[in-house]
Amino acid sequence: MKRRLSINPVTRANGVLSLEVDLEDHAVVDARSIGPIFRGFEVLLKGRDPRDAPYFTERVCGICSAAHGIAACLALENAAGVTIPPNGQLVRNLVLGADFLQSHIRHFYLLALPDYFAGPDVPPFRPRSFQDLRFGREAELRLTEHYVQAIAASRRAHQVVGMLGGKAPFPHSLVPGGASISPTAHLVTEVRSVLREVRGFIEGIYLDDLELLKVTYPDYFELGTGPLDLLVFRLFPLLPGGALWDSGAVLDGRPEAVVEAEIAEDVTRAFFAQAAGGHPSQGHTYPDPGKENSYTWVKAPRYRGRAMECGPLARAWLSGDRTRGPSVMARLEARAREALQVARAMEDWLDQLVPGDPVTLPITVPRNASASGLAGAQRGALGHWMRIEGGRIASYQIITPSAWNFSPRDSQGQPGPVERALMGTRVENPEEPVELGRIVRSFDPCVSCAVHVTRAGGQAQVLKL
Ligand code: NFE
């Protein structure tokens, strides 16, 4: 029997995402990932001072604002040929690292885990689905308690963003040329103590709960799978050199260096005029809401013409942890391990800070230049491309990790990574398609990174996921 499921919006995700899935005898035969609203940040930036870009683009999204601030700073620093001072780099790493921790903890407990446990019969656990819940009473109680503790742990991590970033979200200490908060010995001590608490939560609770989930739902290593087409941009530069993760691509399981010129956006099925596609340095944002055969406001970024998955699993795989390919559980596992890796690295960065040393260098905005800021965000590879003419922004393009993961079909008919991961999934009960929610949420969706203005007349439908 054929049936179309429309899930709009997908709840427990950052931003507004919807899904359209075609089922045939309970199996997904087609899937469309839909960003139903338009993002206009690139348009807002035109004509502005390039030094404003970090503040504007941080507002793309409240959960990954530090990453956008850093990518925008990098684009201008690359255009101006500036290398920031070591202390500034460390402050940036710490702000971004803390943003990773608050987001990863929040994702696991508040967004993903409720797909697997019932929780008490009160909001926010109600209404809920009871489809395929496997935990016994004791585990249920434990996970509920940890859910509440996770809110505090995530808040503590956010506090570190505020301590070194000035505020959270949208840290304003991330400035072109470095950072604007000078770490005093007192501040370093305070941050260390908060960080120790957060690391304790990750080591003592988060990783244990992940193990419990793995043994209770081992079949989810076989669901939401995808090919080894992975992309990573350089993230957390280290002193004196290297990075916690270097840029890299994996095509069909073969790692290679990233060639930036091989990135291109396809808009065949997105609500943008055809001229909006191509390499982001030449790209445009020409919305075309009525475009035929289109179904989303998310463009389709491609690398060497291929849809690429990005995020913690891609980073783990490229840095040598190659035990598992992409799947629901492998993504959740990679994210949890990454949280611990980042928390530990942050303690080293705190040790390396030299109170009193400069954190920023003056930057002269070039009259004419073109540059990119490739960075990493919690959800994967993030790129900003900026062209400056007469000292003002002439063009700005952003490709977020969720644009890579939640991209639509392209001119070759190739689906995006999430669409691909949904295909072939057996949905036990189409009235309560929990399998789909688990697959989609394993990518940690954030379509607010891709969209910002609601289309007039758009109707939210009843959701059940
Ligand atoms: Ni809105 Fe983001 C991250 C960015 S989107 S969360 O991480 O950039 O994928």
Specify the helix fraction band: 25-40%
Query: What kind of sheet is the major sheet?
Result: 3 strands, antiparallel
Order of helices and strands: EEEHHHHHEEHEEEEEEEHHEEEHHH
Bound ions, cofactors and other small molecules, one mention each: NI-FE active center
Structural class: alpha+beta
Descriptive key words:
about 475 residues; alpha+beta; three-stranded antiparallel beta sheet; 11 helices; about 15% strand; binds NI-FE active center
Structural description of this entry:
The protein has 465 residues and is an alpha+beta fold. Helix content is 36%, strand content 16%. The protein is built from eleven helices and 15 strands. Strands 1-2-3 form a three-stranded antiparallel beta sheet. A hairpin with a 2-residue loop joins β2 (18-24) and β3 (27-34). NI-FE active center (NFE) binds next to α3 and α9. The site of NI-FE active center has 16 residues, from α3 and α9.
In short:
The protein is built from eleven helices and 15 strands. The protein has 465 residues and is α+β, with helices and mostly antiparallel strands. The strands form six sheets. A three-stranded antiparallel sheet has the order 1-2-3. The chain has a three-stranded antiparallel sheet with strand order 6-9-10, covered by helices on one side. Strands 13-14-15 form a three-stranded antiparallel sheet.
Task: List the SSEs and their pairings.
Layout: E1 2-7, E2 18-24, E3 27-34, H1 41-45, H2 53-58, H3 65-80, H4 86-112, H5 137-165, E4 174-175, E5 178-179, H6 185-216, E6 230-232, E7 235-237, E8 243-245, E9 248-251, E10 254-256, E11 263-266, E12 300-303, H7 312-318, H8 328-352, E13 369-377, E14 380-389, E15 392-399, H9 401-405, H10 417-422, H11 434-442
Helix pairs in contact: 3-4, 4-5, 4-6, 4-8, 5-6, 6-8, 7-8, 8-11
